[in-house]
Amino acid sequence: MKAFRAADAPARPADPMTFSGAATTARLAADSTGTPVHVYRVEFAPGSRTRWHMHSGPQWLFVTDGRVRAQTLGADAIDLNTGDVVVFAPNEKHWHGAAPGASGAHLAFNVNLTTEWLEPVTDTEYGA
Questions:
Q1: pTM of the full predicted structure?
Q2: 3-state secondary structure the chain
């Protein structure tokens, strides 16, 4: 058994090179035994979001608070509420953040992946 204590994972301001707007991230757990898994809690202020990005493995997002918006390249953005889950396939170009006019938070489960950060999400893309 391996325990991860919330007190050992303080929230930090999100990297402005990978996020737009005010957001915080906390790496809650990480284990590279067997299949590597990293778990993050991300909190988004209204209007904040990630850049477009892709992962080499699957990413699962569990919305824990508020409303979160997510979009895959070429598809319409969707809004997710507390309790909703979205899964991005490996190499699926996407972004996620607070839904317009709301704040939101999610747990991100990154399974055996690396992240390639791309261009910012424009206000037009965010609001569409």
A1: 0.92
A2: CCCCCHHHCCCEECCCCCEECCEEEEEEEEECCCCCEEEEEEEECCCCEECCEEECCCEEEEEEEEEEEEEECCCCCEEEECCCEEEECCCCCEEEEECCCCCEEEEEEEECCCEEECCCCCHHHHHC
Chain length of the chain: 128
Q: What is the mean pLDDT of residues 89-108?
A: 97
What is the mean predicted confidence (pLDDT) over 80-99?
98
- Which whole number is the average pLDDT over 44-68? 97
> Tens of pLDDT along 32-48?
888 899 999 999 999 99
51 in Cβ contact with 121 (< 8 Å):
yes
CA dihedral 58, 37, 23, 66 (to 10 degrees): 70
**Token pair belonging to 9:** 């994972």
Closest CA to 108 of 32, 23, 41: 41
Which helix (H) or strand (E) covers residue 63, if one does?
A: strand 59-72
